[in-house]
Amino acid sequence: MTPITRRTIIRSASAAAFAATVPSAFKARAGGSFRLGLTPVFLDNDVAVIDQLRDALSTAMGMAVELEQRRTYQEVTGLLLEGSVDAAWLCGYPYLQHKAALSLLAVPVWNGKPLYQSYLIAEKDDPAQSLENLNGGTHAFSDPDSNSGYLVTASDLVRKGLHPEGFFSRTIFTNGHRNVVRAVSDGLVRSGSVDGYVWEVLTSEEPKLTQRTKIVTKSEWLGFPPFCARTDRMGDDKIRALQKVLLELGQTGRGRAALQMLQLDGLIPATPSLFDGIALRLHDYKGT
Amino acid sequence: MMPSLQHISLAIRVPLLAAGLMVLLAVVAAELVLNTLDDLQDARIREIAKMHVEALSVALGPHVLRDDVWEVYDTLTRASLGTQGQRLVFTAVGNENGRVLAASDPVRAPVDSMIGELARGARSPQELSATGSSTSILLTAPLMYQGRNVGQVLTELDISDLISERMRIGRLLVLANGVATLGLALIGYWMMRRMLMPITRLARRMHETAGAPQPLPVSDLPNGNSELSRLINTYNEMAVAVQAKAETERRLAERERFVSLGRLSSSLAHEVNNPLGGMLNITDTLHKFADQPAVVRQSAELLSRGLAHLRDIVRATLDQNRLDRAGAALSLQDFDDLKLLISPEINLKHQYLDWQVSVEGSLMSGFSSGPMRQIILNLLLNASAAAGQIALKMEQQGPHLELSVVDNGPGLSDEARFRLMSAAPIAPGGGQGLRLVRDLVAELSGVIRTKKTAGRTRISVTLPIPVNDEVTQC
Fold first, then answer.
1. What's the topology of domain A10-110+224-271?
2. Which of A249, B30, B69, B453 would give a disulfide with A172, using CB separation of 3.0 to 4.6 Å?
3. How far away is chain A from the Cα of B35, in angstroms, using its nearest Cα?
4. How far apart are CA A177 and CA A40, in angstroms?
């Protein structure tokens, strides 16, 4: 038996103190937790929504689920690609950018379809009726890796032989769709490119924010932002478990509650062809 | 204004002055408090501005450096929702080129507009002042990050709370000062009035008893042994002394009438003695020649003339001193009496008297006999004491009666002149005649003049002739 010395006591106490300060993420991982990355695609400022989603996923998967948020799409995508997160709710645009390394787990269904639109919005009393009318004004994008918050408007301009930096007097990135609505609503910029799903949810949840904006144009229907995982990890139990939980989310009470808060119908399996529209725009945009 | 103030009673002026000084003190105190408050508010608003700019520099520096419009805007928006949200009305941030990067109110300061146009009238944190009536102030400052100037901050600060605080304190000050000053002024007025009450009574008493001061009643004397009580007591003692002096003077004047007569007594006795000797001889003659009717008749006639002369002398002497003659009118008989009274003195000293009385009896009747006889007799006695030749002249000079006594003596001594011409108190002892002349002439509203020329001394008395035959009372 090891004699109890002063040094032993100090060492034991230090170990206990260290254990008390270890971040919960490490402890969770050690116990078989799941890390899910979230792009700032939607209501990333709503703590209640995040908590509800985490709660539903943790309960269904039978393990701790950590939701990892980052400031930009690029950072979240990077976490997924390097394996810091097990899966991520990405946008169709970064999925397509890394299509070779990523696979689809599921895609949300909104208003009965796994599709959404990009809205070109402006201040409520702005006379603009089309993208062309917004020439020379300031414009807010959500994120350079966002489909609805950048690619749609940028590719529209490219198709017309133009480019955002020349078409608009100044473009800014707000790192969030809600921020785009704020920027337009407050008059910081004349127009903005925003996720149609986010704008509609905001209209019902925060009507004061969107009532000072109007939709100038809507894009065609495009594939809803999907849940993805690295292709080389698709066989992992945890990944398969997540996929199963996602597809069956509407079947549990907590899952339904989370979906209700997100105003989604549920999730369904997705095929790459769902994102052909985005791929076409990406092709046109990159073609320049 | 000032002359009229001087007519206000001391009992009102002093309390008013005290109240005025209190008001002045209150105004000065209020001004000092408000100035101090202004300084404190200025220091406070400068400190707020300094902290605001420093906080913005820390928070916005990297975003401004990267020209990140959204982050600048988002930071400003969040800052405006903070604890200082009520203070910060508006903030705009400009980049190095002087263009607006973002503002808390993008409509007021659009992105890329010139911040200089918005910053007109703005002041640096060190120059900020919360004084004035404006409820907001515009502040501009360079945005420093990592030791270099990366842009500019323009902020409008709401200072309405400071303005209203100052106005509230100002109103409270004015109200509190007003009430306190009014209260103190009233108390001060009451206390001053109370303290000065003995002075007021004394002044009223002196005014009411002008010329004949009378002591204040014991009930009006202030309590204790204060300056005022000593003052009043001193006044009372003086009043008593003045009364005693007046009584003494009155007695002296009364006695003076007898003094002049006393001076005549020896000559009068001589005047009486001569006829008496003659009449005793006549009675001897009557005894010897009682059987000779012619001698008896002649002796009886001589006796009759002698007794008549004695009667005249006795009557003149009596008249000179009879008190019941004080109200009788002056007449030529009085001059005859005077001549009769002074003649023995003149004759005894072998002096020469020139008697020129050329005034009508009707003019004399306006004067009282008593005082006029005293004046003339005393002037003649004064002249007789000093000279060998004396002249009395009395004539009308317009509305005045001019009486002059001239002698060829050495003139009036300083002491005699002082007694005749001055009303100042005289030392005890010495004659009262000339002072009596002075007092009587003053009572008759007359004027006395003296003149010395070529060995002659003239004392003139000019008296206004009373109208309506009114007899002057004295």
1. D-Maltodextrin-Binding Protein; domain 2 (3.40.190)
2. B69
3. 42
4. 8
Q: Does this chain's domain B2-171 share its CATH topology with B247-464?
A: no
What is the Cα gyration radius of chain A? 22
Category of A90 on φ-ψ map: left (φ > 0), alpha (ψ -120 to 50) or beta? beta
A188, B111: Cβ pair inside 8 Å? Answer: yes
Coil, strand, or helix at residue A256? helix
Query: Is the pLDDT at B161 greater than 80, yes or no?
Result: yes
Structure tokens at A8: 């032993």
Is the Cβ pair A138, B112 closer than 8 Å?
yes
The shortest C-alpha distance from A87 to chain B (Å) reads 29
* Pairwise CB contact (< 8 Å): A174 & B111: no
Strands A138-141 and A191-195: parallel
Say if CB B376 and CB B392 are below 8 A apart: yes
For residue B420, the number of C-alpha atoms closer than 13 Å in the C-beta half-sphere is 21
Beta pairing class for B136-145 and B148-158 = antiparallel
Partner residue opposite B70 with nearest CB, options A169, A172, A187: A172
Q: What count of CB pairs under 8 Å joins A to B? A: 33
What's phi and psi for A172, nearest 5 deg?
-130, 155
- Give CA A132 to chain center in angstroms: 29
In this prediction, the answer to ipTM > 0.95 reads: no
pLDDT value, residue A2: 38
- Around Cβ B456, how many Cβ atoms within 10 Å? 15
Which residue in this structure is represented by tokens 């008390």? Answer: A20
Provide the angle, in degrees to the nearest 10, between the axes of the packed helices B433-443 and B414-421. 30
Q: Where in chain A is the domain with CATH 3.40.190.10?
A: 10-110+224-271, 118-219
- What are B426-472's pLDDT values in tens digits? 766 566 678 888 888 988 889 999 988 888 889 999 999 887 554 44
CATH fold of the domain at B247-464: Heat Shock Protein 90 (3.30.565)
Residue of A nearest to B112 (CA): A170
C-alpha–C-alpha distance, residues B24 and B1, integer Å: 20
- HSE-up (13 A, CA, CB side) for residue B235: 23
Residues A210, A202 contacting (CB under 8 angstroms): yes
For residue A1, pLDDT over 80 is answered with: no
Contacts of residue A189 in chain B, CB cutoff 8 Å?
106, 111
Residue A287 CB coordination number (10 Å): 9
C-alpha to C-alpha distance for A160 and A130, rounded to whole angstroms: 13
The dihedral region occupied by B67, where left means phi > 0, alpha psi between -120 and 50, and beta the remainder, is: left
pTM of the model: 0.60
Please state, in angstroms and rounded to a whole number, the distance separating the CA atoms of residues A140 and A119: 12
**CATH number for the domain running over A118-219:** 3.40.190.10
- Compute the distance between CA of residue B220 and CA of residue B198 in angstroms, rounded to an integer: 7
What digits encode the pLDDT tens for the residues B36-47? 888 888 888 888
Spatial CA neighbour of B52 closest among B206, B205, B155:
B155
3-state secondary structure of A220: coil
Question: CA-to-CA distance for B73 and A138, rounded, in angstroms?
Answer: 14
Burial class (CB in 10 A: 0-12, 13-18, 19+), A161: exposed
DSSP 8-state assignment for residue A226: P
User: Domain extents for chain B?
Assistant: 2-171, 247-464
- Is A4 in a helix, a strand, or coil? coil
Class of domain B2-171: alpha beta
pLDDT at A140: 97
Please answer yes or no on whether A186 and B70 come within 8 Å at the CB atom.
Answer: no
Q: Which of B111, B112, B113 has the most A C-beta neighbours within 10 Å, making it the best mutation to test the interface with A?
A: B111
B97 has a chain A CB within 8 A of its CB: no
CA–CA distances in Å: residue B16 to residues B177, B183, B193, B203: 17, 13, 10, 19
